[in-house]
Amino acid sequence: MSVPFLVALTVLVHLSFAGCRFIISLTAIHHGATPLTVGVVMALLTVIAMLLAVRWGRWVDRTGVRVPMLAGAAAILAAMVLAWAVPRLETLFIASPLAGSGFFLFHIAAGQAAAVIGRPQDRVRNFGLLALAYSTSGFLGPILAGLAIDGIGHPGAMLALSAGALATVIALAARSTDVPRHAPAATHHGERRIADLLRIPGFRLLFIVSGALSMAWDLFAFVIPIHGSRLGLSATTIGIILGTFGAAVFAVRLALPIIGHRLDEWRVLIAAMLLSGVTLLVFPLVDGVPLLMALAFVLGVGLGGTQPLIMALLYEKAPAGRGAEVLSVRTWLINFSQTSAPLASGALAAALGMLPVFWAMGATLLVAGFIALRKTDRER
């Protein structure tokens, strides 16, 4: 498996998943769901992955990446076909965890593939290209989904956006090549424990920063359909706002391989948290579409370059034979935040409106940024 092939598959799978996630939220709103119900449906995207992410990572370490990637793409395809065939609110409670599980299984395997293809010094470039793939589909997915919803309805949009997952299943089924396995784990006595990873210097802070940034990213994707619907915006306009965020992410990640060697990774991560926190504080005070797009772009700039830096730092510190497991622990923490944030945000929005939701997440990022700043300054 080559890096271009991996990037192409990632674009296709994430295009389907990004579209599916967007359509699920607007479909729930279309069926009259409350913000709390929408939060439950969106939280189900990550609940199974939260429980199984570490086991999936160990499975990828043992078996390679092709079969997990194939299984993940097939699960997304099945979820979207189900939502098209049975267009009811109740169906979303099944389609959501099925699609989410499939994507995060694919995500872990794709991250492992990016880490082991080529030489160790190619790792940051590979993760940067993989991140570009995610940002490309993250930009196109909501826009295409919004246009499809306005043009052919929610069920038709779900079927149309499933084409990427279908193409990935066909490509992986027809191509039997895999990537080199990670070096075998060092021999040790007793069971491998997650606590051992957390004792590695810098790991805990990396996981905290990763979780906070990912929570902001997914909270934004969760609240914009609700916020936009309350403002009376069309599905296409909401999709364009999310697409503007994706365009900023793409631009930052396109520049990252060029300027990445000149940047201090930790200062970039801290700056991203502070910039994103301030942007989220301002966001609910704005209702004009041009200003919403501008703030979405600024937020995309803040969050866009963080994922490849975090993944490269984590894999660099990973013990031999536990690379995918380390990435899966990060996925578990992300899934925990992605499960809890929509539930808490949906309940808060139902009780108090959208402003406290944005402000709570903005304050969380600011606090996490200042904590990381103090700890890194002490270490230096």
Note the main sheet.
none
**Unreliable stretches covering 5 or more consecutive residues:** 184-190
CATH class: Mainly Alpha
- On the 0 to 100 scale, the average pLDDT is 78
What's the total helix number? 14
DSSP strand count: 0
Number of individual domains = 1
Radius of gyration: 20 Å
Strand content: under 5%
CATH architecture: Up-down Bundle
CATH fold topology: Growth Hormone, Chain: A
The SSE string, one letter per element, is: HHHHHHHHHHHHHH
Structural class: mainly alpha
Helix proportion of residues, in percent?
over 70%
Q: Tell me, what's the shape? A: globular
The CATH homologous superfamily is termed MFS general substrate transporter like domains
Head-to-tail CA distance between termini: 40 Å
Structural account:
The chain is an all-alpha fold and 380 residues long. It has one domain: Growth Hormone, Chain: A. The chain is 83% helix and 0% strand. The protein contains 14 helices and no strands. Helix 1 (3-30) runs parallel beside helix 3, helix 3 runs parallel beside helix 5 and helix 5 (123-161) packs across helix 12 (306-317).
Name a few traits of the molecule.
about 375 residues, mainly alpha, Growth Hormone, Chain: A, 14 helices, globular
Any chance you could write out the topology, listing elements then pairs?
Blueprint: H1 3-30, H2 35-63, H3 66-85, H4 89-116, H5 123-161, H6 163-174, H7 194-198, H8 203-230, H9 235-259, H10 265-282, H11 289-304, H12 306-317, H13 323-352, H14 355-379
Helix pairs in contact: 1-2, 1-3, 1-4, 1-5, 1-6, 1-8, 2-4, 2-13, 3-4, 3-5, 3-6, 4-5, 4-13, 5-9, 5-12, 8-9, 8-10, 8-12, 8-13, 8-14, 9-11, 10-11, 10-14
